[in-house]
């Protein structure tokens, strides 16, 4: 009921003008991008530039998310979350609405990108995600509500970015927001305490989700069901060890998981190169034997021709000798 009330209060139509009470910046609403427990996100335009504007009647929630984005900005080299542009309030007839404006990140969502470009891109994107999560964790934050819907792949060089930081929680506290399929508590594999393992479990579930685009339902739950689902995916077998360890909570940092994933990729490339080399050697051996056979046949033919030529030569010499001998005998008789 509170959600519906909040959505009605924050609901605005395309073309509406939002003006900040304090900074006096104006934004033209283009369309709604998404709706969550703590507000509505709109695509808006300011000075010919597209931005994402999130508004909520929960000022504390807005403040919390703004603090997260500010913290992201301090994480050098991380592009996980959007850049923060503005924070203000909007006064309207029904009351005051808090909002903030951030970078509009364009591109396909994680699952759409994998479907379009192929499963070979999975480790590339996950390695990027783990690298950014490590930086985030070191700064005392756990992402929390990590799921494919919140991950966008920008271009032209594919780069994974996040579009919603609403679930980001300070390390050690209770997770603020979660989606059951990616939540270890839902599967009975851990608590909802904000720690590194919580995010890494979600990363493993995102990888598992790529093998089941429509997800799968919880039956027995626990590691038994998840490991069985993992076994049924041929595409994920090369990373099965990494995924299973993350599901079991065996990693203490994103760096550990990243290192194991790199090893799995290296092992796969090594095995593929060995297979290529083996096929190449087999091909070379076959070519050698084929050529040897041709050369052998050629030598044998030459030898036969030589023997045949020698026989004809001997026969001719014999005939010539007999002719001369016949003339000699005939001369003696005369």
Description:
The model has no long low-confidence stretch (mean pLDDT about 85). α6 packs antiparallel against α7. The chain contains eight helices and ten strands. Helices cover about 50% and strands about 20% of the residues.
Present the secondary structure layout.
Elements: H1 2-10, E1 17-19, E2 26-36, E3 39-46, E4 49-56, H2 59-74, E5 84-92, E6 95-103, H3 110-117, H4 122-138, E7 141-142, E8 151-154, E9 159-162, E10 169-170, H5 196-209, H6 222-231, H7 240-247, H8 254-333
Antiparallel strand pairs: 1-2, 2-3, 3-4, 4-6, 5-6, 7-10, 8-9
Instruction: Give the strand line-up of the largest sheet.
Output: 1-2-3-4-6-5
Number of domains: 2
Mean pLDDT: 85
Let me know the CATH homologous superfamily of the largest domain: Transferase(Phosphotransferase) domain 1
Task: Indicate the CATH topology of the largest domain.
Answer: Transferase(Phosphotransferase), domain 1
The run of helices and strands is: HEEEEHEEHHEEEEHHHH
- The radius of gyration computed from the alpha-carbon positions, rounded to a whole number of angstroms, is 37 Å
Structure summarized in a few sentences:
The chain contains eight helices and ten strands. It has 334 residues and is an alpha+beta fold. It folds into two domains: 2-103, Phosphorylase Kinase, domain 1 (2-Layer Sandwich), CATH 3.30.200; 110-273, Transferase(Phosphotransferase) domain 1 (Transferase(Phosphotransferase), domain 1, Orthogonal Bundle).
